[in-house]
Amino acid sequence: MKKKKSTKAIIVLIILGILVWILFGFIIWNIYSSLTRAETERPFPDGLPDQEIVFMPYDPFYSHGVTRKTVGFVNVDGNQRELFHFWIAGGSAINRPKHFSTYANEPKWSMNGDSLAFYIRDVAPTIRLVDEQGYMHGKECEDISIQGFGFDGRGNIVAWISRRNIFFEEYDIEVGEEENLLIIYDLEACQIIDLFTVPIPDNYWLSGLSISEDSLLICTIKEVVEYAYQQSIRQYSIFIYDLETGESQTIPGLYPSLSDDGSLLAYYGYSGEIRIRDMKSNDDKFLKWVHEIGDFYEFVSRPGWSPDNQWLVYNTHDGKIFKIDVITGEETYLTDGYTPDWK
């Protein structure tokens, strides 16, 4: 009896030893990869794909330091789909929806569709931009630590700047406690073009950022309004701010998406429905209920407008991408994935 027990113990120890060695080998491989693997210079060798919709597919692959990024493209009919894998610095560039932070994984087309950008969450969160020829830019700009980004009408990056940035010293900028700093900059040249202070308190979550051609800024804001039972209670709204006049307003909702011409705003209401707002008349209409509330905040990303303002593309909480006609409500399934944006 004792002999059988000792044999079982030896087998268990051997199995545990093998598992420890496998784990040790995996850690060593990750460290070696981080030190030797270079960031991909040209992730799209033939230039940016022709498919109009970019999205993030689910990709569970993960490594520390330098990470595999996966970006997908699909056409508007859903019958042409391509995936591209490339290496990028930044441990949170992964496509893992259970660890989603929407603004951190959302790829965005520039307004004229000649470049693509995405956010990288790392020690100093930053951006990468891919030009029309498929080359990646931005690694040399890693001293620009941001909190969220978008494009302006000229193809420049617009971003909220973290208070840890060196810009506060270099540009002798004074930003009050009830303000945040917005910059417009050329990512390829790492050159600041313009700076704005915007009256949003620092405890707001500055995601879903976009700026129209007439300098109207749109973003989601989140404020911790109170604490109850050791948990924070958050209040979401959409902040609309005119950079030229300083006029502002807030509307209930989150994850806003402004059409390229600035005439329409698509966003989510608090019940998980897509709504559309006419920016001139302020008329607001219900389009479609999409999300269950329990999955809402983790898996939702802003809808993307088609160039003619007739369609929106969006993802469901279970990772299905659809386009929807904003007039008729007709829907078409395109592919599986998250955070789609339309060129």
Describe the structure.
This protein has 343 residues and is mostly beta strands. It folds into two domains: 1-36; 39-342, TolB, C-terminal domain (Neuraminidase, 6 Propeller). The chain is built from four helices and 24 strands. The protein has helices at 2-36, 102-105, 167-170, 293-299, and strands at 53-56, 66-74, 81-89, 108-109, 116-120, 126-130, 136-137, 146-151, 157-161, 180-186, 191-198, 207-211, 216-228, 231-242, 248-252, 254-258, 264-268, 273-278, 284-289, 304-305, 311-315, 320-325, 331-336, 338-342. Strands 3-2-1-24 form a four-stranded antiparallel sheet. A four-stranded antiparallel sheet has the order 4-5-6-7. The longest helix has 35 residues, at 2-36. It starts with a helix and ends with a strand.
Features:
Neuraminidase; mainly beta; 343 residues; four-stranded antiparallel β-sheet
Brief synopsis:
With 343 residues, the chain is mainly β.
The fourth-level CATH homologous superfamily of the largest domain is TolB, C-terminal domain
**Strand portion, in percent?**
35-45%
- N to C succession of SSEs: HEEEHEEEEEEHEEEEEEEEEEHEEEEE
Major β-sheet profile: 4 strands, antiparallel
